[in-house]
Amino acid sequence: MSLRESNLSRAARYAIPFALVLIAAWRTQVNATVPEAYLDEVFHVPQAQAYWAHKWTHWDPKITTPPGLYLWSYVLCAAMLALRGSPAKLDVAALRTTNVAATAVFLPWRLQTLLDTVQKVRNNRPFSAWLSHTVLNICLFPPLFFFSGLYYTDILALLVVIEAYNWDLKRVNGGKYGPIYALGFLVFGLAALVCRQTNIFWVSVFLGGLQVVRTVRQSAKICKSSDVSAVVKGGFQNEVYDPLVAEASLEDYFKTALSLAAASLRNPFSIVASIIPHIIIMGAFGGFVLWNEGVVLGHKEFHTAGIHLAQMLYIWPYFFFFSWPLLVIPLLNLIAPTSILPKCLNYGFPEKQKKLPRLVAALAVLPAMLAIVHFNTIVHPFTLADNRHYVFYVFRLLLGVHPAVKYGAVLVYFLCGWAVISAFGFSIVLAPPRLMQVPASSKPAAPAPNPPAAPTEEPQGNRKERRAKAKEDKATSKKEATSKKDTGSKNNKQTQPDPQSPEALAKVQEHLTQRQNQQPNAPRLASFLFGLLPPLCHWLLPLLSSRATLSFLG
Q1: Alpha helices in 293-404 (DSSP H)
Q2: Where is the composition biased (Polar residues) (predicted)?
Q3: Gap between the Cα atoms of 271 and 373, Å rounded
Q4: Most buried of 155, 332, 508, 535 (most Cβ within 10 A)?
């Protein structure tokens, strides 16, 4: 790496904190425009002020989430009071500042640590700079950025999940310190539940699922067959079917799930032993639900549990709308011909990856989506009761213009889902180099002859003996070379292929592409499936506010 590249990479990485100043500027603008409590702050601010006054038994029955946010604000403001002598009284602006501290300081720091650990590129400055910009993208993700200026639970809930993920990775790679890191993971996993109930699906289901995948992969081989029966049989024989997300079809999702299930049943004790901390957290959450007689703390009459399959349709346009800058380049590589793509945008996608949704997938998924829209469209009363939410206008468009609009939106759900999943398989690693056939006439230049060595004096007898031996060796080697040339020239022409033939180059190119696909950081289907589990599990959660109905991070 050149000095210029090193300096640019360093500048790119350390420019991130300056960009995060936008969060503080956003908080200032929000305070100037909305100085009073806004939306759910009407409930959160008085509760935090009650805790600041040491009224620990006071609780607003309209608050549905646990008190983690108020405890966080109490600790931060108490530390500021000890250091600066303020704030003596908590107002809306002071409480919003605690969210800014989480977003602009703690969240980028812990996200950077997490990505460095997952990608294992701490000493690679160019890639670390790219990871730093990934951290910035996450912190500036519009829903998160918006609530960073308000006193809401979103930011802190995400921060504690990220920290639990960090400790879970330490637990896995901790060696003899593994039990200590496991205890730290339990602490932050339970703290995540104190911030928001839905975090159970991230710290227990998602992280536990990733641990199951890691445990299975440690000893399993790759299942090369794509036949369903062979995939299931291979799972019981310690073989895992786990293709790249970029190359997976709809059928591959079911095959990978079957393969993981079979491989887990083959080694149940090792699987259970690896996820004991996640089981403990799940058990603690189950005990809370039994004690509380429900998931939410307050407003239980407006938060009844129910199956909400339509939520799995809403999240795809939600993802697409807020992430379209990250989806543009992958989608261009997927659907645009290579001939019209500029070199700066062409990432050398393989041809089998450049495809639109298959007809079979559309015929299987679209009818299911239509059935969900027809039989399971549920609109929370709060959604249509408050026009300060954008979701209010979205549902007015879907339900109020014409009855057919909600069915026509199914095509939008399908295409957005395809775009997001396809882009998830996008890798920033450049394509393998293309090999070119060199014309046979072009031969490398002959090396320059070495200058003759200076003559040295030696005894006369030794000189005569050497000359005689050299003549004898030369005659013998000439005879052997002549006989080998006569007997083996034809066989050599038949058995040894031309190293520059198209067939040989194709095999080498295939090997390079295969090595490219075996990169450890490329998204694979098994891990991606467990990434989909949290929103899937939200079906069984109470229908929270209209914002949480569409929120994947909720």
Answers
A1: 311-335, 359-376, 390-400
A2: 489-498
A3: 37
A4: 155
Distance of alpha carbon 82 from alpha carbon 327, whole angstroms:
46
Tell me the residue range of the domain where 125 lies.
1-152
pLDDT (tens digit per residue) in 269-317? 989 999 999 999 999 999 998 998 888 887 777 777 677 888 888 888 9
Tokens standing for residue 271: 């699987």
Nearest residue to 159 (alpha-carbon basis) of 113, 91, 117: 113
Residue 412 lies in a domain: yes
Do residues 266 and 235 touch, judged by C-beta distance below 8 A? yes
Who contacts 551 (Cβ-Cβ below 8 Å, separation ≥6)? 143, 154
Give pLDDT tens digits for 238-269. Answer: 888 888 877 777 788 888 888 888 888 888 89
- What's the sign of the alpha-carbon dihedral 174, 178, 180, 182? positive
Is residue 44 within 8 A of residue 99, CB to CB? The reply is no
Does residue 475 sit in helix, strand or coil? helix
Q: What does the pLDDT look like over 423-462, one tens digit per residue?
A: 776 654 444 445 555 555 444 555 555 555 554 444 455 5
Of 152, 172, 206, the last residue of a domain is: 152
Q: Three-state DSSP class for 221? A: strand
Q: What is the per-residue pLDDT across 311-355, written as a single tens digit (0 to 9) for each?
A: 888 888 988 888 888 888 888 877 777 778 787 777 766 666 666
- What does the alpha-carbon distance between residue 143 and residue 318 come to, in Å, rounded to a whole number? 10
Cα 346 to Cα 518: distance, rounded to the nearest angstrom:
21
Each residue of 364-375: pLDDT tens digit? 899 999 999 988
For residue 258, with 0-12 CB atoms within 10 Å meaning exposed, 13-18 middle and 19 or more buried, which class applies?
A: middle
Does 80 fall in a domain? yes
Is residue 117 in some structural domain? yes
Our count of domains for the chain comes to 2
pTM: 0.76
Residue with tokens 């291979």: 234
> Domain for residue 115, yes or no?
yes
